[in-house]
Amino acid sequence: MNATSSVLIPTANHSERMSTRIAFLIAGLLMSAWAPLVPLVKTRAGLDDGGLGLLLLGLGGGSIVAMPFAGYLTAHHGCRPVVIWATIVLCAVFPLLSTVVWLPGLVIAVIIFGASMGMLDCAMNIQSVIVEKNSGQALQSGFHGLYSVGGILGAGAMTALLTFGLDPLMAALCIVATVLGALYKAAPALLTYGTERGGPLFAVPRGIVLFLGTLCFIVFLTEGAMLDWSAVFLVSNRGLEPSIAGLGYASFAAAMTVGRLTGDTIVSKLGGVRVVALGGLCAAAGMLVSLGIDGWPASLVGYALVGAGCSNIVPVIFTAVGRQQRMPQAVAIPAVISMGYAGILIGPVFIGAVAHLSTLSFALGCLIVLLVFVSTTARILRN
Asked: What class is the 207-382 domain?
C-alpha cells in the first residue's frame, strides 16, 4: 500500500498542476480572443469612442463585482465547479459578442462575459495557491506564464481566423471549441475543494492583504498603461508609424511572458522579496529608458524591461496571499485580484487625466515613482 501511494501522489500532484496551467491558458486565450472583436463590435453597434469606453467598463466592472461570489462559492463547493461553470458561461456568451447588434443585449453580454471571467480568474488563482502550497515549490510564475501564452495564442488565432475570411461568429466558435477541449482535459484534476470556509462574503482588505492588493494595483495599473498608452506615446513622441506602433506593447508582453515562464526558477533561487525588489527597480528603469532616451528603439527596450520587471511580482504576491493568516483566503484572494483589476480600469484613465493636465511623458513618468515604491516596500513580504 505504501509503495502504491508513493507512486500515485506525485502523479496526482502533476495532474493538479497541469489542470491549473490549462485553466490559466483558457482564461488568457478567451480574454485576448475578445480583443480583435472590439473594433468589429464598435462598428456593428455604431458606437463612438466614448460609448465603446463605457461598454468596456462593463467588462471590468462585471469582473470586480463577481469575484467575491467566486471566493465564497469556491470555499463552499470547491474549485472544480466554479472553473467549469464559469468557462461554460464564457463559451456560451463569447459567440454572442461577435453577433449581437442590439445595444442593450450587447451590454448584458459584455457584463456577463466580464463577470464569468472574474469568477474564473478568482477560482483558478485559489487553486493555484492551494496547489503551490501543497507542492512546497515555487509554481505561481509558471501558472501566470500560461495566461500570457494563452493571451498570445488567443489574439493570434482570432486575428488569423478573421484574416483568412471566417466571419466573426465562425471564428468565435473555433475558439470556443478549442476552449471546451482544453476544459475537458483539465476538469478531472481540478480541485474538488477550496480554501477554508469562514469570513464574510465581502470584506475590506486590511493589514498585509491591503498591502499586497496595493502592490497588485500598481503592477496592473502599469500593465493597463502599457496596453493603452505605449502605442500612443510611440506615435506622438517618437514619430513611429501608427501601423507598427503595437510593437511597444508586443515588446512588453513578450518580455513578461518569458519572465513568467522562467520565473519559478528565479523565485526559487532569489526568493520572493528579492524578486519583487529587483523587479520593481527593473520596471522603473525601463520606464526611465523609454521616456528619457530619444528614438523608438530605446522605448521598445524600455518597455521590454518594464515587462521583465513586472512579470514575477504578481505571482509572488499570490504566493504571499496563500501564506498570510490575517484574512481567510476565500476573501483575501478575491480582494487582491479585485484591486488588481481596479488598477487596469483606473490606469488608462489616470494616465489620460494627468497627460491632459501636463504631458504624456510626465503622466507615464508617474509610474516610475509607483514602481520604486513597490521595490522599496518589498521587505514587508517577509511578514
From this structure: mainly alpha
In this predicted model, what pLDDT tens digit does every residue of 97-120 receive, in sequence order? 989 888 889 999 999 999 999 999
* Close Cβ partners of 326 (under 8 Å, ≥ 6 residues apart): 206, 207, 208, 209, 332
Where is 296: in which H helix or E strand?
Answer: helix 296-310
Q: Is it true that 2-189 and 207-382 share their CATH fold? A: yes
Question: What is the DSSP annotation of 38-68?
Answer: HHHHHHHHT--HHHHHHHHHHHHHHHHHHHH
Distances (CA, A) of 168 to 26, 117, 173, 181, 234: 19, 20, 9, 20, 30
Cβ of 265: how many Cβ atoms within 10 Å?
A: 12
Cβ(26)–Cβ(182) under 8 Å?
A: yes
Mean pLDDT of the chain: 87
SS3 category, 78: coil
Residues 113, 135: Cα–Cα separation, whole Å: 32
How many other CB atoms are there within 10 angstroms of residue 78's CB atom? 18
Domain 2-189: CATH architecture, name and number where available: Up-down Bundle (1.20)
The ranges assigned to domains in the chain are: 2-189, 207-382
CA distance 72 to 191: 15
Contact (CB, 8 A) for 343 and 224: yes
Written as nine digits, the cell of 123 is 477560482
Residue 349 has pLDDT above 80, yes or no: no
Helix (H) or strand (E) holding 133: helix 103-135
